[in-house]
Design a protein that fits this description.
Shape: elongated
Strand order of the largest sheet: 1-2-3-4
CATH architecture of the largest domain: Alpha-Beta Complex
Order of helices and strands: HHEEEEHHHHH
Length: 198
Amino acid sequence: MGTRDPRIDAYIAKSGEFARPILTHLREAVHRACPVVEETMKWSAPHFMYEGMLCGMASFKAHCAFGFWKGSLIVDDGRSKEAMGHFGRITSLDQLPSKKVLTGYIRKAMELNEKGIKSPTRSKREAKPEAKVPKDLAAALGKNKKARATFDNFTRSHRREYIEWITEAKTEATRQRRLETAIEWMAEGKSRNWKYIN
């Protein structure tokens, strides 16, 4: 018998009105196709486990997403480029595959996990060069020892996240707000996306 995680009930309840029937439908489809599936939360979104990661779903302000962990071996109709997941930006139930097709995808995902088949490896991307620290960020870090220590101990990708967040601001006022927030968060030892880390 599978498991149901009350955190997923809460996630669905907190999602937008348009999203609730979509998420409920997807959840039930997974349980119907894989009665022993186990639910969990990963990356702040509902996921389903069966001999490893099987699939997951998420709700956003204006759409939902659903995808398979080994999706490129199961379904690839090009819509995955529109949004996270494999069915594009889902805004209504009629955008989902039929019950029969969706069940087939879920069973294919189960079969891949049962056989221990790994996802095809993506070609390794060339490492991005170290991001250049803008003068205003360097000056602000120079005035705050805790923030400076955190920034210096970050990985290149964490430093880049802060640098890009600040430099991509559309207005000077937004840039200043982001700079102040960045220094505050780094002084507390937080990465740019600390809110999303479980």
